[in-house]
Amino acid sequence: MSTITEEKKALIESEIIKLSKQYNYNRQDFPIELVMRKYSPKKEEEQTLFVPEYQRALVWKLEMQSKFIESLFLGVPIPPIFVSVIDADGRLEIIDGSQRIRTINKFVSSTLKLKGLENLESLNNIKFSDLSISRQRKFNLINIRFNVITEEADLAVRADIFDRLNSTGEKLTPSQIRKGAFTNSEFYQFILDMSEIPESFKVLPRKKLIAGEAAELTLRFFVYSDVYKEHKHAVAMFLNRYIQNKQDTSFNKELLKTSFLNMLAFIKKYYPSGFNKTLTSKAIPRVRFEAIAVGTHLALEEEPNLVPEYMDWLNSKEFKKETTSDASNNQGKLARRIEFVRDCLLNKIKKNDLNY
Predict the structure, then answer these.
(1) DSSP per-residue codes, 72-99
(2) Partner residues linked to 49 by β-bridges
(3) Scanning 62, 83, 304, 327, which has the fewest C-beta atoms within 10 Å of its C-beta?
(4) 315-to-159, 310, 312 alpha-carbon distances in Å
């Protein structure tokens, strides 16, 4: 027998109905000829089907490209292309399927010579222009299924859909997706600028910087410093939503920059190994960074001239427990680890209250 209350069931139903509307889509079939006209228009025409910057260039190997084209010739069912309507002119942003669209474009432009085919062996070493005119026309008539996400899907939703669908090969990091999805966001550009300042290089490991981790950690600092109590499980979407909201509101760059630099200066002065567990650590666990960075910021907000009475709490069993990766996205755990650091620094949690 279910122990969930009727109130909880109603909340679940209402949340599903409300959020699922953002993911609504229409299913449409377009012939390859029309798809290519939208994707690779003549110079005087406008491209109305495009790949966003946050997605990679064509990375499929020749054999994979060839096998996909072979599948089209054979009529093998292929997954639909996911696109999103992004403006009043009806332009379509490719959310998932860029490798397929690029491969088709490469083939019909005769820059792809098929290789390694095992079923249609006669097509090996053949380009599109080598085919008979009738076969070219028949290929151009092949329908490609599109799932068209409605205009209700904003940048954050589109990035989330791409992240959920991007399950093959090496996935893009959330930071890589955001860099393209929020190209025109003044706030996210501010985040990128802050993640590159010299002060941050002294406390963030260079090994992680090249993977966009500095931007990820910097974003988490600013978001959680403001709304950590509102955090929910879907971290990427929560952060994306915050960026989206900042596009519609003003923010004080200098004030935020000052708080960031003050936090970094405090870390450098009082934390023996910075955000790392030890001086020889090669990476910063995100849960540890969030606790230390945001907790320190909150403490400095209460006491700008703070001089900690003790830093032994860094080696306490309690801090270790609060910064384990287990259930790291749990709302309660996020708040507890941040506030634990804050309260230790402010001496609200005494040294003798902890176990070592």
Answers:
(1) HHHT---PPEEEEE-STT--EEEEE-HH
(2) 92
(3) 304
(4) 39, 11, 6
Confidence grade of residue 210 (pLDDT, cut at 50, 70, 90): very low
**104, 36 Cβ separation under 8 angstroms:** yes
DSSP-derived 3-state class of residue 206: helix
| Distance (Å, whole) CA 289 – CA 334 | 11
Q: Which of 178, 239, 236, 175 is nearest to 211 (CA)?
A: 175
**Phi and psi of 259, rounded to 5°?**
-65, -35
Cα–Cα distance, 179 to 172 (Å, whole number)? 11
* pLDDT recorded at residue 202: 47
- Mean pLDDT calculated for residue range 317-338: 81
DSSP character string of 267-321? HHHH-TTTTSSSTT-S---HHHHHHHHHHHHHHHHH-TT---S--GGGGSHHHHH
Do 55 and 162 meet the contact criterion of CB atoms below 8 Å apart? yes
CA angle 339, 344, 348 (to 5 degrees): 90
CB 229 within 8 A of CB 335: yes
Q: Which tokens hold the place of 192?
A: 């990128």
CA terminus-to-terminus distance, the chain: 44
Cα separation, 96 vs 294, in Å, equals: 35
State the pLDDT at residue 87. 76
Backbone angles phi, psi at 277, to 5 degrees: -70, -40
On whether the CB atoms of residues 190 and 256 are closer than 8 A, the answer is: yes
pLDDT of residue 245: 85
For 207, half-sphere exposure in the C-beta direction (CA atoms, 13 angstrom radius) is 6
The answer to whether 275 touches 204, Cβ cutoff 8 Å, is yes
Q: Which of 88, 86, 87, 100 is nearest to 146 (CA)?
A: 100
pTM of the model: 0.62
